[in-house]
Design a protein that fits this description.
The complex is a heterotrimer of chains A (about 280), B (about 675) and C (about 325).
Chain A lengths: L1 E5 L2 E3 L5 E3 L4 E3 L3 E3 L1 H17 L2 E7 L4 H10 L4 E6 L8 H11 L7 E5 L10 H9 L2 E11 L4 E7 L4 E8 L2 E5 L14 H7 L3 E5 L11 E7 L16 H8 L9 E3 L3 H16 L1
Parallel strand pairs in A: 1-6, 1-8, 6-7, 7-13, 8-12, 9-12
Antiparallel strand pairs in A: 2-5, 3-4, 9-10, 10-11
Helix pairs in contact in A: 2-5, 3-4
Chain B lengths: L6 E2 L2 E2 H27 L11 H12 L3 H4 L9 H26 L4 H5 L2 H31 L2 H4 L4 H26 L13 H7 L7 H26 L6 H11 L29 H9 L5 H5 L1 H4 L6 H20 L21 H5 L6 H5 L6 H15 L4 H13 L24 E7 L1 H6 L1 H16 L4 E3 L9 H5 L3 H15 L3 E7 L2 H10 L9 E3 H10 L12 E7 L3 H4 L6 H10 E6 L27 H10 L5 E4 L2 H14 L6 E4 H7 L3
Parallel strand pairs in B: 3-4, 3-5, 5-6, 7-8, 7-9, 9-10
Antiparallel strand pairs in B: 1-2
Helix pairs in contact in B: 1-10, 2-11, 4-6, 6-8, 8-9, 8-10, 11-12, 12-15, 15-18, 21-30, 25-27, 28-29
Chain C lengths: L3 E6 L1 E2 L2 E2 L3 H14 L3 E7 L4 H7 L6 E5 L7 H15 L3 E5 L2 H14 L3 E11 L2 E8 L4 E7 L5 E5 L16 E5 L8 E8 L12 E5 L8 H11 L2 E4 L1 H5 L20 E5 L5 H4 L7 E6 L12 E4 L2 H19 L1
Parallel strand pairs in C: 1-4, 1-6, 4-5, 5-11, 6-10, 7-10, 13-14, 13-15, 15-16, 16-17
Antiparallel strand pairs in C: 2-3, 7-8, 8-9
Helix pairs in contact in C: 3-4, 5-8
Classes of the chains: A alpha/beta (about 280), B alpha/beta (about 675), C alpha/beta (about 325).
């Protein structure tokens, strides 16, 4: 089974900061999108079960070599970086075209991506790839079983503990959800690591003219986070404190309360909070 | 008249004597040679340091029997028995060489014996023999009647045979001397009286005919010598081997086995760790030969005491047993070759994963071993092989993953390190007295952070110029190395050392004994030579120099405090005076655990155990807390953040009913600062 | 004719889904911003009650695609594609939950139109529509525009959604559309719920945490509470040690990290290692006899009391509440 895992190089969302003064993003540390670790692990686990090949692919500038090299060290059989400088601000739609072209000479059975990225979170990549390749797709996958006759049974994670179960046939592209597995750990210089050291990241330049697709959306600028002003609230009636609270999303959050009294009353208070919290 | 000079059924005694002796010698040598060849299956000897010094140490251990005296405790005086047996052995050995092999064997007994040396030596033997008998009897009673825990699993024939041989040869010797005295053959020297015990025994023979006494004497002689020859052979076939192996083992052991693990050279080694006996060093295999299965390490091991499957004695013996088992097959191939032995999975099959992962690296086993074995060294090699193969305990794996990604084992993003501690960050170019190395616990845990803040207050009061490293500090890598992930450890060490070289400071102050040990004893392996001080050392130093003062010393706290020695401070680095001195200045009553200083009982947090998934048995921290509570203290003082966390949890498990307060020494001092 | 804002309104068991009302309100709000007509897009079997409720949201049209559930995102997307290609709405809005997000992505891909996900708000600049969305986990907002002609596709972030009813009811024009359910590449077999016993702590809306203060014999009462509130039981390390809960249910630094709506800490003191696991919980309720218990620092509601009394009271109230509702 040949499994392609798409890896995205993003600025670490936990580390990045928005600078209010310069209106720019600071503390940009380029890392592998955390959700892609689950995709890579799923690919490696499938290969262990069904034997085959895992190919890590990333559309990224030079820094992307790091995450691809790590994929090799973790056990991927091949790692391919696709790039052209014109892709600097490419949106998901355009990147999906790059990947599609990149897979031209590579046959595959399955493509695994993270369901949504840690930076833009568009959730578009899987469907875009599926559309371009005209193959089956499902996103938000929390569990996956491969039948021997190229049939897949997948379970999609919905909120509140719900699931949808789908069946589909290979070839397919799947959006992996966080928590589908527990990513392995490969220690430096361990057996798998050593084998990975023998492999190199491949680079394929993308010819810009050959990209039929174009951007469908564009980022104009970054601004400070501002929650939406809810309709029921008249801003002019808010005090300065309350306005600040609203900006931080804290308006409407009840004050903390400490209660000491008869159990019946305590229970009622709890019920009130529950009702409010779960409505 | 020597029994050797007689003739038996037409065969001269000399022939019997020498043939038997030579047969025994040959049997011994053949087996010893085989064992030597098995030993050489190990990979290299390694580097030995300070051999001249070690020679003295070895002599002290062996001749003065320091190997036993160092293990004596109020609860276990059995080492004295071995002292008697060992000294007895030396005394008898001289006797055998001079008076039997040379004297009787070469037919010159009268010449050898007809002098005052022999006379005085008979007295020596006469005192030694009964003592050896007592020791042997004590040994037998202990092992088979009293049956203490550390000897309980070992009721095998070998132990019994050995004890009986130890018992028999002084008995036969005494009786032989008794018959000589009864026959009037013992040369009277210079008008002095005869050796007491033998003389007393000789009275048993009054009323017997001369010839029967003679025959008895001959019988005792040959029985005696037969036992001696048996023992000679048995040395190569039993734990008696330690007589030969242990002195060399002690000679070749490092002066401080605890503290620094040997690094792996990743360029030279493809597969690190030990998967088969050929990947252990010859020194380590020698340790297996030296082990006498005394079980002191088993007694000392906190994992074993709390019901885990780990037993350091079993580990050593299992490896030895495995060596003897696979040795013959391996000798067919080139010894010391690459890891090409399928099916000899030392790590995982011979020794189960759980056994290795239960080790907190507390060092109690290494510290107490009479023959200077390094059980932790062996276990670490096995753990390294598991890491190489990618086999982990789930909890350990997560901790390693987290360190690999965020340089701390908690899974908190690295940019939150040392947040809210409130200490200035170091600036390049500035001169500092000390860099305060927080360590992963103080940097992230809310409660332990208070201890770090207390330390900062003390440093300020002392007028020291200090700073912390903030997010530039990465996990020191101690537990990473102890778990066998040498690659990740070296990466951390190299990064930390490179970072530290950017700053100017006199010394590094660590809050945590693990950081202390690693930076002080292991970072030099990678070019990081720093002066490292633990916070208890610094505090007593500041107090002694008057740089900080405590509130009115006459008003010592009335609370009773008990101090727990962290393994990495007391056993690994011999720091146990300073914390007590500090506490002594504040508290009226500083109570000791029954097991304190080098005998401290591990809290269970070391070696990555703090993150291990729940396992069998009781918690070490709970066992230790119970030990503390028996003294009814108000305060439990620690000097290690991991001990702190473990005790915090133990107190929750046990319940706060006794109202015991858990405090770091820094917090205690800060509270009493003038 | 006014341009249309379509909003995908989800139906569950015939009734309006949780966010469906909010999506309807969103259609109206967006329509106001861009001078358009708010329309709803509904799939599946809907009850008359649902239709009645929808009238409170000022929708001009309702596009109804009737069909037998389960309807997979593929079918829904194809159907919307077909209708949109024909009717050219200006905007098509979706919820950003897993279902809505996938449908939106499929429609965007098949129509080859721009999709902006996780929108917080819309605005108009120089006549062109702009969307404001959260990026990097909410660290910043990005203002984006579509570079393709309409329909403009967007998913709306749940924090922005609000259930705002109009003062008067509006009768929408009901247009029945055709379901495109021909040969699909994926087959939705079933929709189901993970049992509470197997539900992972990180997915539960309500988690009950037991700690040192809870005796083993009381776990039956705790289980009853969990059943009444449809919650999952977790706890501190001590609870695992005391055998109250299995290891997988441990909440804390070395266990699970929750982001549930509610966490009820029962008999838990609030040691830092445990609190680490509940930092992201939206509402923490704590019951403990000790006033100084650290857990109270993090709780929205702290009850200083005897859990052995409070828990049964609460269970009783919840059970009668449930009975009252059904």
């Amino acid at each position: 089974m040949r499994i392609v895992v798409c890896l995205k190089l993003i600025a670490d969302p936990d580390i990045i900061e928005f600078n209010i003064n310069t209106e720019e993003l600071d503390n940009i540390h380029l890392v592998l999108d955390p959700i892609d670790r689950y995709a890579l692990e799923e690919g490696l686990a499938l290969r262990e079960k069904w034997s085959g090949e895992v190919i890590a692919v990333s559309v990224a500038p030079g820094a992307g070599d790091d995450i691809l090299r790590n994929a090799l060290l973790y056990g991927a059989d091949r790692a391919i970086r696709l790039w052209h400088n014109d892709l600097q601000d490419a949106d998901t739609w355009l990147v999906s075209q790059v990947i599609r072209k990149g897979l031209d000479n590579i046959g595959f059975d399955l493509i695994l991506c993270g369901t949504r990225s840690g930076d833009s979170s568009s959730g578009l990549m899987v469907s875009a790839l599926a559309h371009r390749l005209n193959i089956a797709s499902v996103t938000g996958i929390i569990d996956l079983e491969v039948g021997s006759d190229r049939k897949l049974i997948v379970h999609k994670k919905l909120p509140k503990g719900e699931r949808e179960t789908y069946s589909l046939e290979l070839p397919a592209v799947l959006g992996i959800e966080e928590g589908i597995n527990e990513p392995r750990y490969v220690a430096p210089f361990s057996k798998t690591f050593r084998e990975g050291m023998k492999r190199e990241v491949e680079f394929r330049a993308v010819i810009p003219g050959g990209l039929k697709g174009k951007q469908l959306t564009t980022n104009l600028r970054f601004t400070q986070s501002r929650p939406r002003v809810k309709t029921g609230i008249d801003i002019s009636a808010l005090s300065m404190q309350e306005r600040l609270k609203m900006m931080r999303g804290e308006l409407g959050r009840e004050k903390e309360e400490l209660f000491e009294g008869p159990p019946e009353e305590a229970a009622s208070k709890i019920l009130a909070v529950l009702r409010e919290a779960l409505k | 008249m020597s029994p050797v000079s007689l003739t038996y059924w037409g065969i001269p005694g000399y022939a019997i004597f020498w043939v038997l002796s030579l047969i025994a010698l040959v049997l011994f040598l053949l087996r010893a040679y085989r064992l030597w060849r098995y030993l050489r299956l190990g990979s290299g000897w390694g580097i030995f340091t300070s051999l001249p010094g070690r020679l003295l140490t070895a002599l002290f251990h062996v001749v003065a029997q320091w190997c036993q005296f160092k293990t004596l405790s109020r609860r276990d005086l059995s080492g004295l028995g071995h002292v008697l047996m060992a000294w007895g052995f030396f005394i008898f050995a001289v006797y055998y060489l001079l008076f039997i092999i040379i004297g009787a064997g070469f037919g010159i007994p009268e010449t050898i014996k007809n002098n005052s040396f022999f006379f005085y030596y008979s007295w020596v033997m006469d005192i030694a023999a009964p003592l050896v008998i007592l020791a042997a009897l004590w040994g037998i009673i202990r092992r088979y009647i009293i049956r203490p825990p550390r000897l309980r699993g070992e009721l095998n024939i070998e132990a019994l045979v050995i004890l009986i041989t130890v018992l028999i040869h002084p008995v036969t010797h005494l009786f032989k001397e008794a018959t000589s005295i009864a026959l009037g053959e013992l040369p009277v020297g210079l008008g002095s009286s005869l050796p007491v015990v033998s003389s007393a025994l000789s009275n048993l023979f009054t009323g017997n005919t001369l010839s029967s006494i003679q025959n008895a004497g001959i019988g005792f002689f040959w029985a005696h010598w037969g036992v001696v020859l048996f023992v000679l052979v048995y040395i190569a076939y039993s734990r008696y081997l330690h007589i030969v192996a242990a002195p060399f083992n002690i000679l070749l052991s490092p002066p401080h086995p605890l503290g620094a693990l040997k690094p792996v050279d990743f360029e030279a080694t493809e597969a690190f760790g030990a998967g088969s006996v050929t990947e252990l060093t010859r020194k380590q295999l020698l340790e297996c030969y030296s082990c006498v299965i005394c079980g002191r390490c088993q007694d000392a091991c906190p994992a074993y005491a709390t019901g885990k499957t780990l037993n350091p004695r079993k580990v050593v013996q299992d490896i030895k047993g495995h060596l003897l088992q696979v040795g013959p097959g391996l000798l067919g191939k080139k010894p010391g070759g690459p890891a090409s032995n399928p099916g000899t999975a030392l790590a995982g099959e011979v020794i189960a994963n759980d056994e290795m992962w239960a080790c907190t690296t507390c060092g109690a086993c290494v510290d107490i071993c009479p023959v200077c074995n390094d059980q932790i060294g062996m276990i670490t090699e096995l753990k390294r092989r598991l890491v190489y193969e990618g086999i982990y305990d789930n909890g350990h794996k997560r901790a390693l993953q987290r360190v690999a990604q965020d340089f701390n084992p908690w899974g908190i993003r690295w940019n939150n390190r040392a947040k809210n501690v409130g200490i200035d960050e170091a600036i390049e170019g500035e001169e500092y007295d000390c860099i305060y190395w927080l360590g992963c616990v103080a940097a992230f845990d809310e409660r332990v952070r208070e201890a770090a803040q207390a330390t900062a207050k003390i440093l300020k009061a002392a007028g020291l110029k200090f700073a912390m490293l903030g997010t530039r500090e990465k996990c020191c890598g101690d537990f990473v190395r102890r778990l066998g992930d040498e690659g990740l450890f070296q990466g951390l060490a190299i990064d930390n050392i490179k970072m530290l070289h950017n700053y100017n400071f006199d010394f590094i102050l660590t809050h945590c004994p693990h950081c202390f040990n690693t930076i002080k004893n292991e970072y030099p392996q990678f070019g990081g030579d720093f002066k490292v001080v633990h916070h208890t050392q610094l505090i007593i130093d500041l107090l002694n120099k008057g740089k900080i003062r405590l509130q009115e010393s006459s008003q010592k706290s009335y609370e009773k405090v008990i101090y727990h020695d962290p393994c990495y401070l007391a056993r690994y680095n011999n720091i146990h005076k300073e914390p007590r001195q500090v506490l002594g200045k504040i508290f009226d009553e500083v109570v000791e655990f029954p097991r304190n200083r080098n005998n401290s009982f591990c809290c269970g947090g070391g070696g990555g155990n703090a993150w291990k998934e729940q396992e069998a048995g009781d918690k070490m921290s709970v066992a230790r807390l119970e030990e503390a509570m028996r003294a009814s203290p108000q305060v439990l003082a620690t000097a290690c953040p991991f001990c702190f966390l473990m005790f915090q949890e133990a107190i929750q498990i046990k319940g706060n009913g006794d109202g015991i307060n858990l405090r770091d020494i820094a917090e205690i001092v800060e509270r009493y600062l003038y | 004719m006014l341009p249309e804002v379509w909003s995908f309104i989800e139906i569950e068991d015939g009734d309006l889904h949780d966010n469906a009302r909010k999506m309807a309100a969103e259609a109206r709000r967006t329509a106001k911003i861009f001078d358009a007509a708010a329309c709803g897009v509904i799939f599946g079997q809907y009850s008359s009650d649902a239709l009645e409720e929808v009238k409170w949201y000022g929708l001009k049209k309702l596009y109804l695609f009737q069909g037998e559930p389960p309807l997979s995102p593929e079918i829904i997307a194809r159907s919307i594609h077909s209708a949109a290609a024909r009717l050219s709405p200006r905007f098509i809005l979706f919820d950003s939950n897993p279902s809505g997000a996938e449908v939106a992505a499929r429609v965007a891909a098949s129509l080859e139109r721009g999709l902006i996900s996780g929108c917080i708000d819309f605005e108009s600049e120089d006549g062109r529509p702009l969307a404001r969305k959260a990026v990097y986990d909410g660290k910043a907002h990005a203002v984006c525009s579509w570079t393709t002609p309409p329909p403009y596709l967007a998913t709306i972030d749940s924090s922005a959604l609000e259930d705002v009813k109009e003062k008067n009811r509006t009768e929408p024009e009901i247009i029945r559309e055709e379901l495109k359910s021909e040969i699909c590449l994926t087959n939705l077999l079933k929709k189901w719920e993970v049992s509470l016993a197997e539900l992972d702590l990180s997915e539960a809306r309500v988690v009950i945490g037991v700690g040192k203060g809870v005796k083993a014999e009381f776990m039956e009462a705790i289980n009853r509470l969990a059943g009444a509130i449809k919650g999952v039981i977790g706890g501190s390390r001590i609870a695992v040690y005391n055998g109250l809960i299995p290891l997988e249910r441990q909440v804390g630094t070395t266990g699970k990290w929750l982001n549930s709506e509610v966490y009820i800490a029962i008999g838990i003191s609030g040691a830092p290692q445990h609190v680490m696991g509940i930092r992201e919980v939206k509402n923490i309720i704590a019951i403990n006899t000790a006033k100084e218990a650290p857990i109270f620092r993090y709780a929205r509601l702290g009850i200083i009391g005897d859990l052995y009394k409070v828990v049964p009271e609460l269970t009783g109230l919840l059970e009668s509440d449930l009975k009252g509702e059904s």
